[in-house]
Specification:
Helices cover 47% and strands 9% of the residues. By secondary structure, the chain is mainly α. It has two domains: 39 residues, no CATH class; 35 residues, no CATH class. The radius of gyration is 27 Å and the shape is elongated.
């Protein structure tokens, strides 16, 4: 647990965030009131189940990333039909 300075406390009480730096790593952080953090977290983070539309979009993006939108892959759209023609 850390102790706030009087200046940090005034900033937080007025609704401002407080910039802090870890002296060992020089990593920057932002300190804010818990209710402000929770409100922001709820706006940004959604852990509900994906809708069917979101699932379809993600599947489409995954397929594109894997190269399935390449025209050379169109043959797989009719794979069973072509296979049945070649191997009756």
């Amino acid at each position: 647990m850390i102790d706030l300075t009087d200046e940090q406390r005034r900033q937080l009480e007025s609704g401002q965030a407080v910039d802090v730096t870890d002296p060992q790593t020089a990593q920057l952080y932002v300190l804010l009131r818990k209710e402000v953090y929770e409100r922001l977290h709820n706006l940004v983070y959604d852990d509900s189940d994906w809708t069917p539309q979101e699932q379809l979009w993600l599947l489409a993006q995954s397929g594109k990333a894997a190269g399935w939108d390449d025209p050379a892959m169109d043959v797989y759209d009719h794979y069973d039909e072509n296979r049945n023609k070649q191997c009756p």
